[in-house]
Amino acid sequence: MLEKLRELDPVMAERWHPNESRKIRRSLQICLQTGRPVSEIYKEQKMQLRKTLEANTGQAGTGDIVEPSHLRFPTLLFWVYSDKSVLRQRLDNRVNGMIDQGLLSEAQQMFNYLQEKEAKNIHVDRTRGVWVSIGFKELDPYITALSSGQTSPENLQKLKMECVESVKTATKQYSNSQLKWIRGKLWNLLDLVGASDHLYVLDSTDVGDWDNAVRLPGERVTEAFLSGKPRPHPSEVSKIAKELFKLKQQRNQSPSEDLEIRKSCDVCNLPGMTEEQWHIHIKGKRHKNAVKGAEKRAQRERYLARQRECAEGEGLGAQNARAEMPNRLNPSGQVEIRITEHELTIHTEVS
């Protein structure tokens, strides 16, 4: 499917990782149904969105509040924001608190419930409801091992820590999805109806400054909203609010941002990245380590291939292998091969 999409719409094909079959299928479907590249359609839609935003928001960035005309009720929204590193630590602390308050015991009770139903041949759909919520499914391997009584205390403790860490990871991933929803869908929908000025960002990064950074600004805006008095522009409430509104305005003014040609890292198996994301990625520790590992594996494979040629009587392969890597014959009659930053000893008996 991806090859076909590359023929019809190379721009869109570069956006998707080969494993993103659903997105590839949908893009290909649109191309075939409309007879047009889906990237062109999305670009036109974003251009139309930009015109709508300009019409609804008026003099954007001037500090004027533009009353929305498409909201069903008078609306005021607060986004209690926190710095990412601070938020991640809070989420970890939250999970630790849940563990202290009996999360493992609750997971054990749910496991026992499943066992009782299974004993009665009653099927429980574990793909819905509480069974797929964060907590039980991550702790299930530990509870299962604990109930079996066949796991050593050391391995059981290790499994427990791994499962608790999985709960923390899932919690942070869910938090990221919430932030993505706010920045993307919610904010964009508010833009469409000219109500982006009804979203206020309050910075809760420093809990010790809660009154000044969150409570008092929130109360002032709420009082003005309820009394019908002029409210401050959201970008004026806090420093982080100003930065977020500036970034949002820049994205609105770049209609083709999401459709630019993207790059994929085959070494790290990462999907299409923008030019900016690509440069950040290739400078990162993860990518550099992956490249080094790939180079070592390739070097080892080349050497082993030449050794196989040598074993088959192809002297040329043996000569090339010796030319590439220094070797020496030790007293035991073995050939020792050394590779840069990695040592590989091949035991070869010399006749």
UniProtKB/TrEMBL annotation:
<dbReference type="GO" id="GO:0006400">
    <property type="term" value="P:tRNA modification"/>
</dbReference>
<dbReference type="InterPro" id="IPR036236">
    <property type="entry name" value="Znf_C2H2_sf"/>
</dbReference>
<dbReference type="GO" id="GO:0005739">
    <property type="term" value="C:mitochondrion"/>
</dbReference>
<protein>
    <recommendedName>
        <fullName>tRNA dimethylallyltransferase</fullName>
    </recommendedName>
</protein>
<dbReference type="GO" id="GO:0052381">
    <property type="term" value="F:tRNA dimethylallyltransferase activity"/>
</dbReference>
<keyword id="KW-0067">ATP-binding</keyword>
<keyword id="KW-0547">Nucleotide-binding</keyword>
<dbReference type="InterPro" id="IPR039657">
    <property type="entry name" value="Dimethylallyltransferase"/>
</dbReference>
<dbReference type="Pfam" id="PF01715">
    <property type="entry name" value="IPPT"/>
</dbReference>
<dbReference type="GO" id="GO:0005524">
    <property type="term" value="F:ATP binding"/>
</dbReference>
<keyword id="KW-0808">Transferase</keyword>
